[in-house]
Amino acid sequence: MSSSNNKQQHFDTLLALTLGALVITGIVMVYSASAVYAQEEYQDSLYFLKRHLVWVLLGSGILVAALKVDYHKLHALTYPAMALTLLLLLMVMLPGLGMEAGGARRWLSLGPLTFQPSELAKFTVILFIARSMVKRADKLRDFAYGYLPNLIVLGIFFTLILLQPDFGTAMIISLVAFTMLFVAGVRPKFLFYSVLAVLPFLITAILSHQYRTRRILAFLDPWQDRADSGFQAVQSFLAFGQGGIWGLGLGDSRQKLFYLPEAHTDFIYSVIGEELGIIGALGVLVLFGVLLWRGFSTALRARDLFGTHLAFGITLVIGVQALTNMGVATGILPTKGLTLPFISLGGSSLVVSMLSMGVLLNISEHATRA
Amino acid sequence: MSRPKANNLKTPLAGFQNRLGLVIFFLALYGAGLTARLVYLQVFQHEALLAEAEKQYVEKVEINTGRGKIFDRNHNPLATNIDVESVYLNPREVVDPEQALRVLTSALDLSPELIRQKLSSRRHFVWLKRKMALPDAARLKNQSIAGVGFIRESRRFYPKRALAASTLGFVGLDNQGLEGIEHYYDDLLKGTTRKTYVERDARGRPLLDSEAGLLTPSPSHDLVLTLDEVIQFHTESALARQVERYQARGGVAVVMEPKSGDVLALATYPPFNPNRYGVSNSDAWRNKVVSYAYEPGSIFKPIVAAAAIEEGTAEPTDIFFCENGQMKIGKSKIGEASNHSFGWLSLSRILIHSSNIGAIKIAQTLGGQHFFDYIRRFGFGTRSGIDLPGESPGMLRPLKKWSGLSLASISFGHEISVTPLQMVTAMAAIANGGTLVKPRIASGVWKDGERVDHFPPVELRRVISGKTSRKMVSILKEVVRQGTGKKAAVKGYEVAGKTGTAQKIDPETRKYSADNFVASFIGFVPADSPKLVILVMIDEPKDKYWGGEVAAPAFREIARESLRHLHVPSRGERVFVLDRA
Lengths: 370, 581
Fold this sequence. Notes:
The complex is a heterodimer of chains A (370) and B (581). Chain A is 69% helix and 4% strand. Chain A contains 12 helices and 3 strands. A 3-stranded antiparallel sheet of chain A has the order 1-2-3. Chain A is globular and about 55 Å long. With 581 residues, chain B is of the alpha+beta class. Chain B has 2 domains: 81-210, Alpha-Beta Complex (Penicillin-binding protein 2a (Domain 2)), CATH 3.90.1310.10; 229-565, DD-peptidase/beta-lactamase superfamily (Beta-lactamase, 3-Layer(aba) Sandwich). Chain B has helices at 14-44, 46-57, 97-108, 112-119, 134-142, 165-168, 180-184, 186-189, 229-245, 282-285, 288-291, 301-311, 347-353, 356-377, 406-411, 420-431, 466-482, 547-550, 552-565, and strands at residues 58-62, 70-71, 77-89, 126-132, 148-157, 195-199, 222-225, 250-256, 263-269, 319-321, 326-329, 332-335, 344-346, 435-438, 442-447, 450-454, 458-462, 496-505, 512-525, 532-539. In chain B, helix 3 (97-108) packs across helix 4, helix 12 (301-311) runs antiparallel to helix 17 (466-482) and helix 13 packs across helix 17. The radius of gyration of chain B is 36 Å and the shape is elongated. The chains are: A mainly alpha (370), B alpha+beta (581). The A-B interface holds A 36, 40, 137-138, 140, 179, 182-185, 237-245, 254-255, 257-259, 273, 277-278, 281-282, 285, 289, 292, 296, 299-300, 305, 308, 312, 316, 319, 323, 326-327, 330-332 and B 3, 5-7, 12-13, 15-17, 19-20, 23-24, 27, 30-31, 33-35, 37-39, 41-43, 45-46, 48-50, 52-53, 56-57, 201-203, 207.
């Protein structure tokens, strides 16, 4: 704490390098996975690459900005950020502002670009929990004061996102928030009963939408209905399967030729597995492993409790989202519309992830030397 | 152990660290599961998933390119291929279905319903029209409709049209041999590229240049036949002339080289054009030379005589009493043609005058067992084994089932049915010095102008001795010189042969008809060193029905033209042999 006065500390280099590797992998793979599709749909094979690069540049700018600003200023910005996020989430609901696609209202249209407020909500909720855990650090074992306020705020965000509907993001946010509460020291009993109470609603939500039920059934045996509900999963397996150990070679995926849906977004991991083999697929897994390691390490080395909780939350949300996306692609989790952080075609997800990484690197910069 | 308080500044993160450890443990467990899943999919399931993926990329398209050509013995083409264009549709690529429907309906001469049905197909590849002429396809190409594609194919073409059609046969739309040589040698002719796998993306478009593979023909296996197109032509025209002149139901003619068994010509009437086989009656497609069995009638008598001479039971000069034109066997009465009445005739004269009763007497000297054996040895009652489909073995009753009348009936060519090919092969044995040869129609396989396979002539067995053969030749020469076969004579050459006029069984009454005959002539020329054995059979001629009247002139014409074509020297010509020594 005291040494920082003598010598300007540097942010975690390994973490930054890992991030750079992921972003570069993303640029290469987005181009590889989208070129043929882009040529076909827009007569421009670079169509998606150009867009992705714009998002990467935007994200990098925000990352650098976040890195420059001391993360302690976020402490004061928590409530304004929450208000803004809630406003945006409500705006999505309005027919004039929200963009509807595939039966869901998840996007706000900002001129040529679209923005997904639920992505921002991931960051805002983490920010809120981190602040709350510092504020309530003495009374975490108390239900009414230590736990309930968190649950209410989380419940509001959860409900708004579920209404879009964006089941995947709602689940990720809840999982990360609960894990943050658990690690901070909230009594596991509270968390357990909360989940138990929400469970009937979740099951109802799953059963009320036929497509979710079918996704679950397709997850259990995708080959059963490989032409329809199991199509994505089966095509993804075929991509991984033919990639084998060494892969078909960069650019040589055959599954991306209109067989595999969402090849450059949600299923980009399958294209990696097909073109670069298990070597490439495990390589990406290892990169995220390093990111988790350095992120958690930053949490432990943070100068204060706010930095610890914030670093933990940021690391966890990126890790959980990455692992979930990979689990969906390989068929160990049911299909959800989640991107692979830093690698999938950019958008609000990439920008928010880059913002988070900027904050995380900033925390590492101010960390005490372990 | 008490939980450390969060405000304990000494160890603010002790509990946090433990709980973080638990989170890391679960994440690591999940990561291990993910790794295991990747190993399962990418290593253990690699082969299976690769094969499964392969299935959705390739679409099987059956295209035949480079079907083997068929040539006559002098390498004149009888069956070749011409380039045509086939039109296919990828319904998923069609942009404007209404426009496509309109253009395709008018360009392809197909019904709008059919095209609409094809447009709504879920497949990536549907044929619109196969094998269009190139200019027609080019016109459609110029319209450039999205989703419509073209594949160059080859279409079977028979440049000589009906020539040798019943021998060549024809092919179906996918160039598969359906009849004749095309069918018999289909495996050889069809070539290697029968099925083509086209790699396609999910929208059904070919990947890379995979379609280019369709266009490269592999070198084909070409078949060279023993047929001679010139002899074939003269055989067909002579046959057609006689059939049409006598308004007959049909007819067949065969020309064979007696030493090798090579079939030089094989004609059936009515003819058909294999380029458009669909428009003709399927009966015309049948090769009656091998698939039809007739009662041969008197042309069978030389077989009886040859057997008796070979067996030593009769000599050409031995005389037989011909019962003055009427003979009783059991309850049946047998007479002579035209109610002739013969007394004593030598064996030679029995053939010259074609006496039925004489033939019976000769057969009786042999007895049933020997007679039966010789008939078998001459090749009757079994398939010759010629390389043509649909060969009939004919009908020869086993000896055990012969009635008291059988030996008599068979001796003048009834109660037995034979294919024209069997008859020619048997006569070839008499002509060539006594050896039965296996008839053949294909002599070799050629590839890229070189012979890669050869089907040599096959001698099956010696049936009669050379001495017997010579005796038979001089008798059969007399048949043409002074007997029933005078009209078969060819100026400048000695002809040996035998006429036949067989009553047909009326299919309704199951008895021999008084009106329907098969008129035939079988013979060989030049008699003493025969180059050709020729059989002509005219089915149900009107007005005249004698083999010597109806069939013999066709024989003469075929013989004359063929001898000229083959440059066989006539008796008057002097042949100079240059001694190179």
